[in-house]
Each structure stands twice: as structure tokens, then as C-alpha cells.
Design goal:
This protein is mostly helical. It has four helices and no strands. It is elongated. 8% of the residues are buried. Bound molecules: zinc ion. The site of zinc ion (ZN) has 8 residues, from helix 4.
Length: 112
């Protein structure tokens, strides 16, 4: 991977991290406990609980993507960044750009 690709990747990860942080803040808001009082009718309380669990699932996946991106950012300047951990061949740049947290090439990832 050359410096230009590294810079491009760095910018892409930083942008995505910023977006994810926003998403997480919004999801946190919508996954707050649903009040048990009469603020909702019975049906809309069910809906609120439903959408709360959707928000919680989204929150979990956003947080895990965020932590993988954070790790990718830390590894970005490593010699072996973009090199498959299993077969030592370079991971195609397209895959690295799409999934910066990937540490395996497509072939090795498929074997798992
Ligand atoms: Zn491989």
C-alpha cells in the first residue's frame, strides 16, 4: 500500500468514525428505557419497546464497527497493515477500503 492510499484510507476511516459517533448518539437517545407510566397508550408503548430494541441492536453493531475502525486506525501505519495475517499476501486495496478492519484477504476469510 503506498502513502497516497494510506492517506485516503485514513481520511475515509476518520470520516466514518465521525459519522458513527453521531449515529451512536442518536441511537442512545432512542434506546432509553420506555417509561412504564401513562405517557403511552398500551399499543404505542409496545411500539416504543419494539423500536427501542431495534435501536439497541443498531447501537451494538455501530459500537462494534466503531471499535474495529479505531483499531484499524491504530494499525494503519504498521508495516503489515493491509497484509493478510494468514497467507502474508497483500489484501486488495478495494477490500481494505471497504472493510478497513479486515486482517485477512478474501480467500483466507472465506476459509474460516
Ligand atoms: Zn490470505
Amino acid at each position: 500500500m503506498n502513502q497516497e492510499q494510506r492517506d485516503q484510507l485514513h481520511q475515509q476511516i476518520v470520516d466514518e468514525v465521525a459519522g458513527l459517533k453521531k449515529t451512536i448518539a442518536q441511537l442512545k437517545e432512542s434506546s432509553k428505557p420506555v417509561p412504564p407510566d401513562n405517557a403511552y397508550g398500551r399499543l404505542s408503548r409496545m411500539e416504543a419497546i419494539n423500536s427501542k430494541s431495534i435501536s439497541e441492536a443498531g447501537l451494538r453493531s455501530a459500537r462494534s464497527r466503531l471499535s474495529r475502525l479505531d483499531k484499524a486506525l491504530l494499525r494503519l501505519d504498521d508495516e503489515d497493515f493491509g497484509i493478510c495475517l494468514s497467507c502474508d499476501r497483500p489484501i486488495p486495496i478495494g477490500r481494505v477500503l471497504l472493510m478497513p478492519e479486515s486482517t485477512l484477504c478474501v480467500e483466507c476469510a472465506d476459509k474460516l
